[in-house]
Design brief:
By secondary structure, the protein is of the alpha/beta class. It is built from 15 helices and five strands. Strand 3, helix 12 and strand 4 form a beta-alpha-beta unit. Helix 2 crosses helix 3. The radius of gyration is 22 Å and the shape is globular.
Length: 298
């Protein structure tokens, strides 16, 4: 996650740059600087809602130390870092994407360009995927006693898909639905041997971080599929699989995320072996006996 150093006058492109810069030099930070770094990394919503004084107070350090910290990260001052954070929070907004379209023709879209972008996302995701993280994810999905699947906003659609396919090859899979007000309570008995499978692409709510933190505290495995800008979320997960989701026009593209989920669940079925085949056979027998998939119902 490290990157080359930048001058103090350079305006960072987005707030994820803040976490990247912190992590790149974290081991070299002084004790007081590390206190501030920890405060920043622990803020799911970023630093945009805090003043420099408030951050310094939270970290229990002086304002002067806080000012030097942001300069050390390569920002002109705290204000430039805060502006970048606000820009990041808007990233992924369809309205911003619409405003960036340069012509009516571009606004109508080009399906060939759209497909080429999806292919590029898949390629970048495949090239950056760490084999050891994929192997760890498959072990977690196939060997955990129980699996809780969760996702919010756009990520919920992917979480629902992950639940649907995983539930066909193994038992004890639960989908935590966003409309349920008792999500934390549903994790009350999660513990060692269990896993929380989270889909957390950008613009996810704070509760995702809270659920991951609960699972980690109770010694359950945490698996996260996310985009590269989710560094604040990654700290709460044991296994991270990063997917490229950049879109061509208004919306993010989740093709690589769906592909990753498909692969993990399919490979987990192969890992499970006979038990997965038996469950698939039982489900097919139920479909035949209930005739629930018939177009006519006859």
């Amino acid at each position: 996650m490290s990157r080359r150093g930048t001058s103090k006058q350079e305006r960072p492109r987005n707030a994820s740059d803040i976490e990247s810069r912190i992590l790149a030099i974290y081991g070299k930070l002084s004790r007081s600087e590390r206190q501030l770094a920890d405060v920043i990394l622990a803020q799911p919503g970023g630093i945009s809602e805090f003043s420099a004084s408030e951050l310094a107070e939270l970290a229990k350090i002086s304002k002067a130390t806080a000012a030097r910290f942001f300069q050390r990260l390569g920002y002109l001052n705290y204000r430039s870092a805060r502006v970048a954070a606000r820009e990041y929070r808007r990233r992924g907004s369809p309205l911003d994407a619409l405003n960036e379209l340069s012509s009516p023709l571009e606004a109508r879209g080009n399906f060939g360009i759209h497909l080429a972008n999806d292919l590029a996302n898949l390629t970048r995701t495949g090239e950056s995927a760490a084999p050891e993280q994929i192997d760890a994810a498959v072990r977690t999905l196939s060997r955990s006693r129980r699996i809780f699947v969760v996702g919010f906003r756009n990520s919920y659609a992917l979480a629902a898909y992950a639940f649907a396919v995983l539930n066909t090859v193994r038992a004890n899979v639960t989908l935590l639905t966003p409309g349920n007000l008792d999500l934390v309570e549903l994790l009350a008995d999660i513990g060692p041997g269990d896993a929380l499978f989270a889909i957390g692409f950008r613009r996810c709510p704070v509760i995702l971080h809270q659920l991951l933190a609960v699972a980690q505290k109770r010694k359950a495995k945490t698996l996260l599929i996310c985009d590269a800008e989710a560094s604040a979320t990654m700290q709460w997960s044991d296994i991270q699989l990063i997917c490229d989701i950049r879109g061509t026009y208004l919306f993010d593209s989740y093709v690589s995320g769906m592909s990753m989920i498909n692969f993990l669940c399919s490979t987990s079925a192969l890992e499970l072996g006979p038990s997965a085949w038996r469950r698939l056979e039982e489900i097919e027998e139920l479909h035949e006996s209930t005739n629930d998939l018939s177009d006519t119902g006859a």
